[in-house]
């Protein structure tokens, strides 16, 4: 195998990323936006017999001004099936070949199930993996609706007759800035960390057409906004990134209606996989029930390896 650093352009990286329906954190635009706000980023590519078999995007930081920390989140992206031994060799080369000064640490949080972290048996797991829910949008709308849990579907039916109107917002920051402000307030109140300030606005503008980066929907009731959801698009996949609802929105199950409209809009844009994000039944039981009620697949990731 051979390792190369930063040798692909955006189009070639995107081609592999789209084919794999890979995660947001491995999207070219994600790395470019991180660079724009001062976060180091490098991209590795591994070849076997002249074929690209893996991509890995790392973002970095300095610890105590001395140690370089490189994180490959939700990666590497496997562009073809590999044996455990071959995966182990990819990890070894990426860790050994990182083009950042020593001392350094390489962390991987692979897009692997808890029982399938092939190639990492000799590594030390330093954090357990989180669980997420994914929806296969290659299904028909009829199949998806039939897959909703009964109570979830009943809430959708109720929302459809509650007099809510759904608006699709554009990419002008003035149209969605209020939603990001709500998200910042929620994080501060709950002590939750998220993407760096300014990242989402940069990401939305990262491609020529914002239709390839964002979908934002707002629910109104009697002329007043009551709920909203924002999804970041990355190739043939999308991630539920921001949600907000007030008491009226919760009363009328606005998020059920918004997600149903979002599914249709994402399918129209060629999205095949929707990542609804982490589920925590202890800290955020209501949000977890909402995501699980969609009938999506629960994926518990292997964790973080050093």
What is the element layout, followed by pairings?
Blueprint lengths: L1 E4 L4 H10 L8 H9 L4 E8 L2 E13 L3 E7 L3 E2 L5 H14 L6 E6 L15 E3 L3 E6 L4 H7 L2 H11 L3 E6 L3 H18 L8 H6 L9 E8 L2 E11 L2 E9 L1 H5 L2 H15 L4 E6 L6 H8 L4 E4 L3 E2 L1
Parallel strand pairs: 4-6, 12-13
Antiparallel strand pairs: 1-2, 2-3, 3-4, 3-5, 7-15, 8-13, 8-14, 9-10, 10-11, 11-12
Largest sheet: 7 strands, mixed
The tally of helices reads 10
Please write the string of helix (H) and strand (E) elements: EHHEEEEHEEEHHEHHEEEHHEHEE
With strands numbered from the N-terminus, the spatial order across the biggest sheet is 9-10-11-12-13-8-14
What does this structure look like?
The chain is an alpha+beta fold and 306 residues long. It has 2 domains: 2-123, Aminopeptidase; 132-300, Aminopeptidase. 34% of the residues lie in helices and 31% in strands. The longest helix is centred in the middle third of the chain and has 18 residues, at 173-190. The radius of gyration is 20 Å and the shape is globular. It starts with a strand and ends with a strand.
């Amino acid at each position: 195998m051979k390792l190369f650093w930063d040798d692909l352009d955006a189009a070639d990286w995107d081609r592999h990323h789209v084919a794999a329906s890979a995660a947001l954190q491995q999207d070219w635009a994600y790395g470019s936006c991180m660079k724009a706000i001062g976060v180091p980023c490098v991209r590795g590519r591994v070849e076997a017999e002249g074929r690209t078999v893996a991509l890995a995007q790392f973002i970095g930081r300095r610890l105590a001004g001395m140690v370089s920390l490189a994180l490959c989140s939700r990666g590497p992206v496997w562009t073809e099936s590999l044996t455990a031994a071959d995966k182990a060799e990819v990890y070894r080369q990426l860790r050994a070949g990182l083009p950042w000064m020593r001392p350094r640490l390489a962390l991987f949080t692979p897009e692997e199930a808890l029982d399938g972290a092939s190639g990492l048996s000799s590594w030390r797991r330093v954090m357990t993996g989180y669980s997420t829910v994914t929806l296969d949008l290659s299904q028909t709308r009829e199949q998806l609706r039939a897959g909703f849990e009964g109570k979830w579907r009943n809430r959708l039916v109720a929302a459809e007759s509650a007099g809510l109107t759904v608006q699709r917002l554009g990419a002008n920051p003035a149209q969605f800035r209020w939603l990001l402000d709500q998200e910042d307030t929620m994080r501060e109140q709950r002590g939750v960390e998220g993407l760096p300030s300014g990242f989402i606005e940069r990401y939305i503008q990262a491609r020529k057409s914002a239709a390839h980066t964002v979908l934002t929907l707002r629910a109104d009731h009697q002329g007043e906004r009551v709920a909203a959801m924002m999804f970041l698009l990355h190739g043939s996949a999308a991630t539920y990134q921001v949600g907000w609802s007030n008491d009226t929105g919760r009363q009328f199950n606005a998020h059920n209606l918004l997600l149903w409209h979002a599914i249709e809009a994402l399918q129209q844009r060629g999205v095949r996989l929707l990542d609804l994000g982490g589920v925590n039944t202890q800290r955020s039981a209501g949000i977890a029930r909402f995501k699980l009620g969609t009938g999506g697949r629960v994926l518990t990731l292997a964790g973080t390896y050093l």
